[in-house]
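Could someone model NAP with this protein?
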Amino acid sequence: MKATLITGASGGIGEAFAKRLAAEKHNLLLIARSENKLQLLCEELAAKHAVNVQYIAADLTKPDADKIIFEETEKRGLEIEWLINNAGIGSGGDFLEYDLKSIMEMMHLNMDAMVALTHRFLPQMRARKSGKIINVGSMAGFNPIPYMTVYAASKAFVQSFTQALHEENRLLNIQVMLLCPGATETNFFEAAKIGPDRKSSFSSKELETPEQVVASALKGIQKNKTIVVSGTQNKILRRILHFVPNSTALSLFGKQMRSQLNLKYL
Ligand SMILES: NC(=O)c1ccc[n+]([C@@H]2O[C@H](COP(=O)([O-])OP(=O)(O)OC[C@H]3O[C@@H](n4cnc5c(N)ncnc54)[C@H](OP(=O)(O)O)[C@@H]3O)[C@@H](O)[C@H]2O)c1
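Reply:
Sure, complex below.
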């Protein structure tokens, strides 16, 4: 049975992908750690849209998670047609505020899990000569960002990896697309233990909804885009940043983050 695999599907952008794609009649395989949330979502979507919705509760920071997920899809007879590498976690604060363990886990989740799942499922797509991979990056991937050091660097990795993979697979009828949301109304800020000052520094106009981000992504897929920046303000910001020297952008971001994070000790 053909299915779409979504990581980080228990909330936020991943859950919005699940709801939208179930309504478009995709069978789904949902991945996250929160088993209860996944189970409820599966029941809700299967009942509402008459599609097959399954889950695997897995921590993608664990080294063998991709193997377990892949083997489980084989056992269940699932052919992954769309792979949405969405699970990710952020950071916001001085580099040394985060312990090394949580930094390494962020790197495993944001980069390693995405690469590993792609490596597992791309061969089937190549064999079928069809497939779609959406990797969720971030506006933070376009520039180094002080006080989001490792997060921004991990999303720069996602960007580089995805663009190169797009070109490698373009002629094989496999679409690989980078989705770059800006600030979005999800649990992201709380999960990253970023202080409430940072989230409330965005006006409600600046925060997109997860549904808006997913709508941008699906439009991008239809138009065969390599990169989709979600939201008009984010698109404008990206254009402006194109013309700003790196050193100026760095010091502007540094200043803005110090003020948003209320870093008065510096
Ligand atoms: N929200 C924003 O402002 C924003 C902006 C730019 C980019 N993004 C990107 O968008 C993506 C989705 O984030 P979101 O905003 O939807 O955040 P979110 O609401 O915090 O959702 C994150 C999802 O990832 C899952 N997850 C976290 N750690 C995991 C782990 N170790 N193993 C498996 N699953 C894990 C979470 O589920 P469990 O806790 O159940 O595991 C949850 O389903 C991320 O890649 C993020 O970097 C977000």
